[in-house]
Amino acid sequence: MSDTEQADLERKLEDIPRPLRLLARLFANAPVGFQIYRADGHCLLTNRAFRELFGSEPPPEYSVLEDDVAARSGVLGLIRRAFAGEAVSIPTIWYDPRELEQLSIPVGRRVAVSATFFPLFDSEGKVSHVGIAFRDETRERLLLEEAEAGRAPAEAAERRAAFLAAASTALSDARDLERTLRDVAELASASIADWTVVTARIGSGELRRIAVVHRDPAKRAAAEEYLRSFPPHLHRPDLREISEGRRPVLFERLDAKDLARVSQDSRHLEVLESLGVASAILVPLTRGAELIGVLTLVRGAEAPPYGRDDFACAQDFAARLSLALENARLFEASRHAEERLRAVVENLPQLAWTASTDGTIDFYNQRWFEYTGTTLGQMKRDGWQSVLDAEAVPGVARTWARAIDRGEPFELELRLRGADGSYRWFLTRMRPLSDSAGRRLGWVGTHTDIDEQMRQTTELRHAVDTRDTFLSVASHELRTPLTPLMLKLEALEVEAATHSDSPLAPLVLRHTEVMRRQLGRLTSLVNTLLDVSRISSGRMVLEPARFDLAAAVREAAGRFELQAGRQGTLLRVDTPDDLPAFTDRLRVEQIVTNLVDNALKYGAGSPVEVKLRPEGDAAILTVADRGIGIAPENLARIFQRFERAVSDRNYGGLGLGLYIVRTVAEALGGAVSVQSTPGAGSTFTVRLPLGR
Fold first, then answer.
1. Which segments of 308-418 are extended strands (E)?
2. What is the dihedral of CA 283, 287, 292, 294, to 10 degrees?
3. Which of 354, 358, 334, 335 is nearest to 346 (CA)?
4. 25, 109, 118, 372: least surrounded by Cβ within 10 Å?
5. What element of type H or E holds 392?
């Protein structure tokens, strides 16, 4: 109030009879709490509103100038300025007279108040009294605190979410995991903890404390001492619970007894107390069922204790740390595997390289550079195409792309240019590399020098072509005189039969019979050579027609009855009465002839069985003997040209019969197979489409 306002008020009060009585009644009944203090700070008067507001009135020994509640609230200095003669207003504070330390006030209420202090002066201008008017702001302050309390969980949740996002970002690109763990520990201590400890095993290393971070730089020295003095081991009292149970632990409020229980010794307890440990969370870091570390988050007494939301956040954080540690282990294992692979590739005698999953070559061994005369820089710039025969590049590129897409290996014979500019043949093999779970890790390729083998193969192919040409010419030349020779032989037999009374006739007939058999054998060999020549040159012509397959098999097998009888071999033929077919009859008879001839040759006088049966749209022909059989290692090659299962010293022939059987059967759309046991005989099975 200004001096003018004060003078105006006093003038108006002079018109009121007994104004002091009026002011006393106003003081006593005002709805606002009032106090009047003497200049020494002791209370003179309080009104009813004050007593209702605070629940009591100050005792005689109370001095507002020594109020420790006001001191703790930071307003005692303002109060003393009022007693020095200055009108002051103090901001809203929480006040409870029962919290006064210098005296005991058993009755009272905790209220939020603001106040105005106004001094009263005597005639000499000195402060004689100080009046105080209080405004009750309890309701408004409670509403404000409730609103703030409502915002606090949301803000805490936002902080936790922001922290987890930042930690995930840091951990996702952890090239230096140890440094990253220290960085995220710093993040944790700035967001959800006063201090953070990460104890872990990185890769295949030992368990060690990676990070100890305190948000208060002044306490970092104590944290570092903790790091030096108390090495981690999972049987420590503070870690035993999670090391044995693999379960996280929440200590909402740690008192002295709790700290004593988890400490290793008195020195450990002293360090924990100096760091202000009041609330803590310990979470195991795991890989499956294996414990690989511990995350410890600690708050001091000044921070709110950890709750369930913090506990969940810590477990989420620990899961991300565990994943980062596992990724680091896998990366280390992958790096070691890559080093071992490259060491193997480097020491291979072939040209070799490795590639990533998309087929990009990332490593060549030294032999590659020695042969091609290139450098790593040149290969990265120009690619493998630069040393490959240009005509082969498109085909190789297609094969390569298909293999990468399907994850399949491939083999190619191709020519690579050497450092001297010449080309040599190489057998190129490319194989996918996979882990135990079948995930593709990359590719490895080798180039084996086969230039000499290719040259020899070319020479052999030329020799085979020359041989086939010779066989073709020779068989034709041999066949030419056979027909007139056979005619001459038949004429001689007729002449001998006509002169049967001649003493030479029986001798001539015996000799002509032997000559006929040998001539027949020679004719068969020549025909076989002609067939092989036609097959090799692709000149074999099929002439399909409709006929009775069963009758054809019986007729072809029947031609061997005389030979079987001479050998003492029982030849049994089992076929349906008829079996219509549309195929090449001559070629079918050729198959039967070769198989029966083979069975008689190697049957050693044992029975030979020829069977034919229909099966769906095909016919199954089997020829079985009980002869010497075939060794397992020979089964695959007996269908090749000039191949035999036994020596030709004991058994005649050119080794072409089964080759002709296979090629003719395949030409007719069928197939041939064999089952055999040495000493127990062989069974050849031919499947032929009926084509009807």
1. 351-355, 361-364, 410-417
2. -10
3. 354
4. 25
5. none
CATH topology of domain 155-332: Beta-Lactamase (3.30.450)
* 196: enclosing H helix or E strand: strand 195-200
Compute the distance between CA of residue 511 and CA of residue 548 in angstroms, rounded to an integer: 38
Domain extents in the chain: 31-136, 155-332, 348-449, 455-535, 541-689
pTM (predicted TM-score):
0.43
- Pull the structure tokens for residue 313: 């956040």
CB 117 within 8 A of CB 22: no
The dihedrals phi and psi of 139, each to the nearest 5 degrees, come to -60, -45
Taking CA atoms, 75 is separated from 165, 257, 276, 343, in Å, by 43, 38, 29, 77
Task: Report CA-CA distances (Å) from 156 to 299, 318, 578.
Answer: 15, 19, 94
pLDDT band of 162, cuts 50, 70, 90:
confident
Q: Return the structure tokens found at 304.
A: 């709110």
How high is the pLDDT of residue 464? Answer: 63
pLDDT value, residue 652: 46
pLDDT at residue 243, as a whole number: 56
Q: Which of 88, 41, 47, 85 is nearest to 65 (CA)?
A: 41
What CATH superfamily is the domain 541-689?
A: Histidine kinase-like ATPase, C-terminal domain (3.30.565.10)
Beta bridge partners of 424: 416
Give the whole-angstrom CA distance, residue 399 versus residue 356: 17
Give buried/exposed letters for 396-427 (b at 16+ CB in 10 A, else e).
beebbeebbeeeeebebebbbbeeeeeeebbb
Are 553 and 612 contacting, i.e. CB atoms less than 8 angstroms apart?
Answer: yes
* Per-residue exposure over 23-48, b if at least 16 CB sit within 10 Å of its own CB, e if not: eeeebeeeeebbbebbbebebebbbe
CA-wise closest residue to 411 among 401, 399, 423: 399
Identity (one letter) of the amino acid at 331? F
Cα–Cα separations (whole angstroms), residue 325 to 14, 207, 246, 284, 332 = 88, 12, 17, 12, 10
Q: Is 148 exposed, middle or buried (CB count within 10 Å of its CB: 0-12, 13-18, 19+)?
A: exposed
CA-wise closest residue to 34 among 131, 136, 114: 131
User: What one-letter code names the amino acid at 527?
Assistant: N
- Which one, of 452, 471, 474, lies nearest residue 641 by Cα? 471
For 438-468, b where at least 16 C-beta lie within 10 A, e where not — what string?
Answer: eeebbbbbbbbbbeeebeeeeeeeeeeeeeb
- Residue of 179, 192, 160 whose CA lies nearest to 281: 192
pLDDT of residue 509: 74
Fold agreement between 155-332 and 348-449: yes
Alpha-carbon gap, residue 6 to 72, rounded angstroms = 35
Q: How do 545-548 and 440-449 pair as beta strands?
A: unpaired
Average pLDDT, the chain: 82
Options 3.10.20.310, 3.30.200.20, 3.50.50.60, 3.30.450.20; CATH for 348-449 is 3.30.450.20
CATH code at 455-535: 1.10.287
